[in-house]
Amino acid sequence: MNLDYVPVLFQMVIAVVVAVSMLGGAILLGQRGRRTPAKDMAYECGKDPIGPTNPRFSVKFYMVAMLFILFDIETVFFFAWAVVYRQELANGPQILFGMLFFLAVLGVGLVYELRKKALDWTRHG
Fold first, then answer.
1. Is there a contact between 92 and 99 (Cβ–Cβ < 8 Å)?
2. End-to-end CA gap in the chain
3. Are residues 69 and 110 in the same domain?
4. CB neighbour burial string for 108-122, b if at least 16 within 10 angstroms, e if fewer
5. Range(s) of the domain holding residue 12
6. How many CA atoms lie within 13 A of 121 on its CB side?
7. Structural domain includes residue 35
8. How crowded is residue 95: how many other Cβ atoms within 10 Å of its Cβ?
9. Is residue 94 part of a domain?
10. Considering the entire predicted model, what is its pTM?
11. Fewest CB atoms less than 10 Å from the CB: which of 62, 71, 120, 124?
12. Contact (CB, 8 A) for 77 and 102
């Protein structure tokens, strides 16, 4: 076994021991009470769970979520680009124009989204 993985194995063992001891302690030391249907009912933000358990979401919700992921991943590319750009000053113009092209494509996509009102959360229907 490679000795480089011993700390990882040690951390995993510690995590399992802590989790099992917490669960076991809660079972052993926890208060035992009477179970009633009201106590066994699902608790959701202080409200009674009335209605369907899996409500339908609008497609706009998923559209906004996908757009968020797209622009969130874009920031990861900016950090990587900044590191490479700083290290490779000899190829600076090539790297800079590559990122400007990437920004232009994202800008066109953003303008398209704004024209289609994909980011307009106040629109109903």
1. no
2. 60
3. yes
4. eeeeebeeeebeeee
5. 3-30
6. 5
7. no
8. 17
9. yes
10. 0.46
11. 124
12. yes
